[in-house]
Amino acid sequence: MADHPSQLASARELRADARHNRARILDAARETFAARGLDAPMVAIARRAGVGVATLYRRFPSRESLITEVFGEELAACASVVDEALADPDPWRGFRAAIEKVCAMQVADRGFTDAFLTAFPDAVDYERTRVRAERGLAEMVRRAKATGRLRADFDVADLVLLFRANCGLIAGAGEGVEAASRRLVAYLLQSFGAGHAEPLPPPPPLTLGHLTRRA
Question: What residues does the HTH tetR-type domain cover (predicted)?
């Protein structure tokens, strides 16, 4: 027996309402994570979206699933930045450009760094993109060093120091955060050049994963 027209209309309304709620949740999550980081309470996201917590969890059963959805595009953008750097015929120029762009992403979205580096085993595509970006960063460093323009004692761990420093700056710079970040990055990029740099102490035992650790 065919569905009654009123039933079909009701079903369409429910689907439209579900899509609307989902979009509101994603917008609210993006804004909340950007302002408060990935530890922001789920109830705060639901409140900002104007939906109940139960509705939020029906759409996204875990924090990880919500984060994966929210930051998927940003992660893909970061991976693209690294790919562009590797495609640049001038590895040193590509290296500098990639660092500037990733740091700008950190400024634009406080939750981005954690989302980039947090492992979500169930999100296969997300995890593959993240790993590709990490490997690309290491290759970017190797190529820049091979030109002789990046100091020979530079280590991938120095990228962690740079990103951590930028994160710390972002947390306390207030309205001047964009200008402060650009200046910090410019200072550090100058120090990365080979030139007549003095030898550095050994690099710390840091990996990109340390960026998500609070301690």
Answer: 19-78
